[in-house]
Amino acid sequence: MTRWGRLRIPLLAGACALALAACGQQQPEFPALEESPPDAIFNRAEFELASDNLDEAARYFGEVERLYPYSEFAKRALIMQAFTYHRNREYESSRAAAQRYLDFYPADEDAAYAQYLLALSYYDQIDEVGRDQGLTFQALQALRAVIEIYPDSSYAKSSILKFDLAFNHLAAKEMEIGRYYLKRGHYAAAINRFRVVVEDFQTTTHTPEALFRLVEAYLSLGLQDEAQTAGAILGFNYQSTDWYEDSFALLTSRGLSPDAEGTGWLSTIYRQMLRGTWL
């Protein structure tokens, strides 16, 4: 699809709606499909899209590709089909069409948009935190492709924002499981989950709570050095948060202070912070 075509997508519904109003809501006559040139079929698909007949729009865009596979309209129809499927929440079909576009036209100027649609087909399926996170991982991979392969495209900035949200989503899943274990007294299992957040998702909004939960879990196990070190990391990076205030109160109630102690994995992170290599 040309640059004109890409700009036309968000304006399409309004333009065609005005056209419909001008002709008294009467559907225009179209020639028989097999007798129609590619531009006529493409226009029919656009009409159906503007009329919110998404199944029909996707079908007609597909017919352009089927009947005129080597035409310029076939290329435009394929990306529009991916867009239409996504708008209709047929994410697997949108993904397939977008991937086919990337396979056939990897150097085309709309390849970035195809990759973005492919990423959205995963991203928009991310459900509640308690669900399986396989789609989140796939969304991250596809969004990363947009960011790394098409950094100068108009879709890179949006992909970065969505990548951060999806990344935060994965951290939230780890936190949910960690809290589950912590409430039931499975402290070692809880620590493993909170450690994942601190080590692998340290740029997310969940890191301060993960450190506080580590203070709780380590104190419950009688591991004072680790609890104090987790509190020290909180104090170094998140001193203004309620999580630090809560950890400080918890530690001092046991006669302890938020100071780095011992030689465990948290001590390594604390030393990295002092060198400016953590976060």
Topology (SSEs and partners):
Layout: H1 3-22, H2 38-50, H3 54-67, H4 72-87, H5 91-104, H6 111-123, H7 134-149, H8 156-183, H9 187-200, H10 207-220, H11 224-237, H12 242-253, H13 265-274
Distance between the termini: 41 Å
Would you list the SSEs in sequence order as H and E? HHHHHHHHHHHHH
Quaternary structure classification: single chain
Largest sheet, strands/sense/barrel: none
CATH fold-level topology of the domain at 1-124? Serine Threonine Protein Phosphatase 5, Tetratricopeptide repeat
Descriptive key words:
mainly alpha; Serine Threonine Protein Phosphatase 5, Tetratricopeptide repeat; 279 residues
Q: How would you concisely characterize the structure shown here?
A:
The protein has 279 residues and is mainly α. Helices cover 71% and strands 0% of the residues.
Provide structural commentary:
This protein is mostly helical and about 280 residues long. It has a domain at about 1-125: Serine Threonine Protein Phosphatase 5, Tetratricopeptide repeat. The protein is built from 13 helices and no strands. The model is unreliable at about 1-25 (pLDDT under 50).
